[in-house]
Amino acid sequence: MHRRDMLILSLSTLLLAGIRRARAATPLTLHKDPACGCCAGHAAYLTEHGFAVTIVETPDLDSFRRQHGVPDALAGCHTILGDGYVIEGHVPVEPIRRLLAERPDIVGIALAGMPMGSPGMGGEKTEPFTIYQIDRAAGADAPKVFAVE
User: Fold this and answer.
1) Which domain holds residue 138?
2) The most confident of 13-17, 34-38, 41-45, by mean pLDDT
């Protein structure tokens, strides 16, 4: 094989690998309050872990959450929509991957509040994070635990 042919083959292989990786990235749309700064940190974290994140400034985030079935008790910092699910707050990547792989019949998952040490928040993690599932039944009294990270 000539040197030029080897170069073309190598470049083609790299290009195809890049296309496969780009296709494999699950698109997520992160809706955030325009005044919030930590949400971009969570978006960067998710991007580093292979997700394609688009940030949308959403001034009335409370109404947006309600429209998508997130109970007030599980409200986090921002609301992510992806692959038919809601991901509320600074949820670590492992529960998100599990949600998308297992595809349970739920609205989505949530890490309520803005816990220090969670992805994008900074600070040290001082205790495990409890990620709850958001059930389809409106007003579920006691949310079920989806994961503990």
Assistant:
1) 25-148
2) 41-45
**Strand-strand pairing, 52-57 and 27-32:** parallel
* Residue 38: CATH number of its domain: 3.40.30
User: Into how many domains does the chain fold?
Assistant: 1
Asked if residue 13 belongs to a domain, the reply is no
Asked whether residue 125 is assigned to any structural domain, the reply reads yes
- The token pair at 104 is 């349970």
Q: Are 78 and 36 in contact (CB under 8 A)?
A: yes
Confidence band (pLDDT; 50, 70, 90) for 141? low
Both tokens of 61, joined, read: 């985030």
Instruction: Measure the CA–CA gap between 52 and 15, rounded to whole angstroms.
Output: 19
Distance CA 79, CA 85 (A): 10
What global pTM score does this model have?
A: 0.82
Q: Are 135 and 143 in contact (CB under 8 A)?
A: yes
Q: Each residue of 105-123: pLDDT tens digit?
A: 999 999 999 999 999 998 8
Q: Is 29 exposed, middle or buried (0-12, 13-18, 19+ CB in 10 A)?
A: middle
Q: Is 14 contained in some domain?
A: no
